[in-house]
Amino acid sequence: MIQAPDPGRQTSLEGPGPAAVHFRAGRGPVTHVQLGAFEGPLGLLLTLIESRQLDILTVSLGSLAGAYLEALAGLGSDRIGNVSAFVAVAGQLIVIKSRAMLPREPSTRPAESPEEESDPEAELRARLLLYRAYRDAGARLQIVAIERCGVFRREPTVAAAAGRAGAGHVPPALLDIQVLARALDHLLQRVPPAVPAAALLARPITITERAEIIRQALRDAPTVVLQELLRGVRDRVVLAVTFLAMLELMKRREIVVEQAQPWGPIVARRTTPSERGSGGGVAETDAGPIDELLESFA
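^ that's the sequence the OP posted. Answer follows.
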């Protein structure tokens, strides 16, 4: 069961039964959604949308990030074939939700790369529509195949005329094996190459490395502007890890970060002994290793 946003919600996805929605009285309106069988990460997301009776063309995919992560956490290992594919879709949902929640600086300059022009929500919605079209077409073909299984029709008039003419059974001509081989070769040439599955890549840098760069910059100058420190850096992973390193140093009371106005320069300086003592922080020499798994931010 997946409840609508509520502090006490629980998840249970056992059983391949059809999707259903139930309402229960309590402290507030709680919606329980029972998910049926699904195939792959897009199938799980589409099942969540259809179980909540939402329109795939208008629903905000970012709002489903929490429900998708809960559903993914409640699945058994036997229902997840390619874990990286599920994690990739979950990452797209988190990016969509973060873009909707965080303010974005208005920009009049043209995008420098196709990646900056892309809309992750529109791309994921297009993939969901294509997946639903293939799924529904496959279901209809399966129904037709089941209905016609073992049924061989022959028009009565044709059968009667053949009987009056004394027609008998004519064995089919033997098929040349070379014809079959050429047909298979032609079919294989038309099959497009398989798209490699999405995979998670290890971070090329660590938070500890970026934190040391910030410390070294503050040893050479009284203040450091984050925008100047990242000038010329185009790798988004490096940008994100540097920002996390700055947050970690703030949590350790090693630096103080100030921003006078929105979208203005982010200025960092070393904390004074009085600031460090009043804040209850630990000294830099006594601090433990930096948490690379970000569990301390949870």
